[in-house]
Amino acid sequence: CNTDSHNLYSEALLKRISAATTGQSGTFDEGAKVVEAAIFQRLGVNRSTLTVADGSGMSRDNKINPQTLAKWLASFDVEDPVGKRLVKSLATPGYGTLDNRFKKTNLNGSTVHAKSGYLRGVCALSGFILFENKKPTVFCIIANGVKGTVRGVKKMQEEIVEAAINN
After folding, report:
1. Can you name the residues that pair with 126 across neighbouring β-strands?
2. Were both Cys, which of 10, 59, 124, 136 would link to 55 (CB 3.0–4.6 Å)?
3. 10 Å Cβ neighbour count for 62?
4. DSSP label at residue 98
5. Model confidence over 91-127: pLDDT tens digits?
6. Backbone φ and ψ of 11, nearest 5°
7. What is d(CA 130, CA 60) in angstroms, rounded to the nearest whole number?
8. What is the pLDDT of residue 46?
9. What distance in Å separates the CA atoms of residue 37 and residue 103, rounded to the nearest whole number?
């Protein structure tokens, strides 16, 4: 789901999580509660920083602040099995949703693993920068209220990631 954004799969996973937790037929509402509870339990963040409305992220009722998403990503150790699976599930430049991203970016031997997201007026990019001899860097860049095309926002996101790599 993370590499190519299969929204139907994501919705089905949310309902599957609900069914596994409740022992009943899965619902979006129960799945959302399970996801929110897992994040709050793991991070101890304020409940106002997150609202899950669906599994795909396509609902405008979904809300997350960038700090919460970055904290969630940073809570995974990319060297342990779960963290490795998460990183491997994400798109990389030239593949999946990043197929046309980072073409003019100097990655300096690092690897970017990220999930992009787009709704009219919203453009997001979050993920990991993995380095050869340095700890990973987590990033989360969400632009809201974008008027017209997101081309400029995507360029800005790539420049921010490049700056993080070269810093």
Report:
1. 115, 140
2. 10
3. 18
4. G
5. 999 999 999 999 999 999 999 999 999 999 999 999 9
6. -65, -40
7. 31
8. 85
9. 38
Report whether 87 contacts 119 (CB < 8 A).
Answer: no
User: What 3-state DSSP class applies to 31?
Assistant: helix
**pLDDT digit string (tens) for 116-165?**
999 999 999 999 999 999 999 999 999 999 999 999 999 999 999 999 99
**Residue closest to 79 by CA, chosen among 35, 15, 130, 31:** 130
Banded model confidence at residue 19, pLDDT cuts 50, 70, 90: very high
What is the rounded distance in angstroms from the CA atom of residue 14 to the CA atom of residue 50? 16
Which of 110, 112, 119 shows the shortest CA–CA distance to 153? 119
In 3-state terms, what secondary structure has residue 51?
strand
Q: Which residues, 6 or more positions from 106, have their beta carbon under 8 angstroms from its beta carbon? A: 162, 165, 166
Q: Would you give the DSSP letter of residue 52? A: -
Whether residue 163 contacts residue 105, with contact meaning beta carbons closer than 8 Å, is answered with: no
- The position carrying tokens 């399970």 is 34
In a 3-state reduction of DSSP, which class is residue 68? helix
Q: Which of 66, 72, 60 is nearest to 118 (CA)?
A: 60
User: Is 134 in a helix, a strand, or coil?
Assistant: coil
